[in-house]
Amino acid sequence: MNKIFELIEQEQLRQNRGIELIASENYVSKQIREAAGSILTNKYAEGYPNKRYYGGCEFVDQIEQIAIDNACKLFGCKYANVQPHSGSQANAASYRALMPEGGKVLSLVLNDGGHLTHGSNVSFSSHFYEFVFYPLNKDGKLDYDEILRLAEIEKPNVILSGYSAYPYQIDFKKIREICDKVGAKMMVDMAHIAGLIAANKHPSPVPYADIVTSTTHKTLRGPRGGLILTNNEELIKKINSAVFPFYQGGPLEHIIAAKALCFEEDNTKEFKDYVTSLMENTLTCSETLRSLGAKATSSENHLFLLDVMTSFGITGLVAQKKLEEIGITTNKNMIPGDTLSPKETSGLRIGFAAVTTRGCNKENAKEIATLIYEYLSDKISKEEANKKVLNMTSKWKQIQEL
Hints:
Elements: H1 3-17, E1 19-20, H2 30-36, E2 47-48, E3 51-52, H3 58-75, E4 79-81, H4 87-98, E5 104-108, H5 124-128, E6 130-134, H6 144-154, E7 158-161, H7 172-182, E8 185-189, H8 194-198, E9 211-215, E10 226-230, H9 233-247, H10 253-265, H11 269-292, E11 295-296, E12 303-307, H12 308-312, H13 316-324, E13 328-329, E14 331-333, E15 347-351, H14 353-358, H15 362-376, H16 382-393
Parallel strand pairs: 1-13, 5-6, 5-7, 7-8, 8-9
Antiparallel strand pairs: 2-3, 4-10, 9-10, 11-12, 12-15, 14-15
């Protein structure tokens, strides 16, 4: 067997045997996998439906238009660009559409839950634009009065919200009011909570924001890729030209087909029920960990933060590697007020999007919390922990059958 296919089989085995708790990962359906691996990968289609630079686009034009229509229907907006290859590129195009190079963005302190493209010094974002930051309050929550105070001082072109490690709901209406008071544009990166928004389990930013960006994986349960939404006719023109030809060449029409199917799947009762279970499982796990004595945030969405330094006297990196020994996959993460570096961190970010897709329920969530607590506390052996993991995952849906 070719080595690549050997490794793919091993990865499938890893996914089936393990408990996936990385908040930004999920499992797609069989039809999405089929579309993503289809012959559409052969087609070059620079441009947009009915405005291509290549011939032979009569079918991919229809596919991309369906993806656009499905996205608009799912999120209740007028315009969508489904071509970004990633959330990062969606953000890059949106910045360009909203402000000139060198413009100022007010976003969350990165260590408090922001994304690299929200102003990190290792990202293009901080090299092309000026970023200033608002912090979370002492309870680890957004302080809208502080955001307003800083916005009045800094007078940013754009106020950015939507985060990669924030376990609470966001009041987009309040952020819109702040933007209006200081004359700023409002941009929301809803990549992590897009599935909750699609299922009406979190307030939508679409009625308030000038531009909303997202990935299409994570809680949306689609292929890896990006998405941009707006209700502004002038902005969609700027967005489209920023995606192509400024940042990208030919779109990935096989992934766009998979996105179209994702948006269709997300507009069903089955998906809404899934999101309800996802949120219940996440909250149950965080509550169980706290009841056992660990320091963890609560959760109003699909993730929470576990302070492993306070709880177990180890870094996030050590905790991540230790859990991986027994097939539980998490990721180290900064927590508000963290004194350790991003390479070590004091916390873990834990999410239930992937395992809920496989059939994890509230009882399983309690078992997972207890297992994490006991193993990181050295109260249970590696062999015993491995047995518990395999016993649980063998009863869930297998990846290839989803």
